[in-house]
Write the structure tokens for this entry.
Amino acid sequence: MGKANFYRITILFSILCLFSASGWGVDGPLDGEEIVVNLHEVLLTAMKSEKSLGHAGRIDIIRNVVSESFNFPLISKVVLGEKWEVLSHEDKQEFVSVMRSLSISTYAHHFSNYSGQKFVIVERKSRNNSLTLSTSLLSDNGDRTSLKYLLRKNTEGWLIVNVISEGVSDLALKKAEYSYIIEKDGIKSLLRQLATKIEALKELG
Amino acid sequence: MLKNHMQLKCLISTLCIVLFTGCASTSKTSNNDPHESMNRKIYAFNDTLDKKFIEPVAEKYVAVTPAVVRKGVTNFFDNASYVNTITNDILQGKPKDFFKDTGRFIVNSTLGIGGLFDPATALGMPLRKEDLGQTLGKWGADEGAYLTLPFMGPSSYRDISAPVMSIFTNPLTYLAAVVTVPAGVVRAINSRANLLEASRLRDQAALDPYAFVREAWRQQREYSLYDGNPPGDGFDDFIDGEGDAAILRIY
């Protein structure tokens, strides 16, 4: 290798390093974005999967990405509000587990068919440890559905804490529903009803 | 189950059901529902009425009416009620929207043959919805308490007058009863038919349908009031003294 070539490669390598550092730095807001992009890719895979796989097959496809993309402990705490504080350690763990299963089952049920949809990122806003990623789900007939992801960064990295669809917060819906049920019938009843809902989704396919 | 994009949209737009029984950020920590006990009773009444009579009729209507006809009926009634949106554009001081919506109304009333077709959307004048509740909100009126109205579903102190204005601004109101009554029935059935999938999705997703509908409706109203850009970043619920780390310590 000639000296000139060596310098060229060194310069090229330096430029690549510089690019990498600016795009995927240690603080890497892109990491948060990647969480959402990865989730979308897996959801599309599930939608395009063979019908014969059924609900159970789609759960196998999306289980890991949903489990690893959402901060279920934090989501659970926010959903239950003050009631979270009075739960036993076992009830907290069970509730977090049920929330995870419900999300996986819901995605597997609703993202079951592909007809040309695609996800696009529209806008990102970051502040300290918070990231808001506005995305759209586009269909081949031009319909557009707004999906806004709220992410928080903790010691384990960026995780999704809420999804707002066309202005409606998933977290707020759950909060409104669950607080009434706990107030009226208690946490055990809520856990039973959630388990029934997960089973119902399984049966619906 | 979501088998196509429209269904998906139905779900993800929350399942934002304005149904007969009813169909607006986590920043709303209060449910603003001092009349909850009465509201739940009315919700149950509406729901029973819907399940026993309205929904079955809507299902029959869908079974015997081709989708293209139902689309035409929807277009017609959307267009007939569009003077309400145009009037509220003026009241909210939105000149650009006023001209665009007026253009839409003229195009669809003429080229669209009385509103049966919707060429305006393809010409860059998509359907928008403004009503008196949104106008009062723009003027600074608080939403007031949440209400469930008999036969009509979700509303609030601020929004209760919106249907009155929409009746008075609808040209069909001023026709003979022999026309307006059947037209009203067709409109109601067609509107319910358009929400069949959304109501199924609500039934699949909700543990407490009343609370689900109330929260979805309130958030949707706020979203509409701010034209899709409500204030706040949505992180209010995640900011407390301990922060996220407190949760992670538990696990």
User: Anything to note?
Assistant: Chain A touches chain B through 63 residues (CB under 8 Å). The beta strands of chain A are 118-127, 130-138, 144-154, 157-165, 168-169. The CA atoms of residues 101 and 198 of chain A lie 7 Å apart. The first helix of chain A runs from residue 3 to 23.
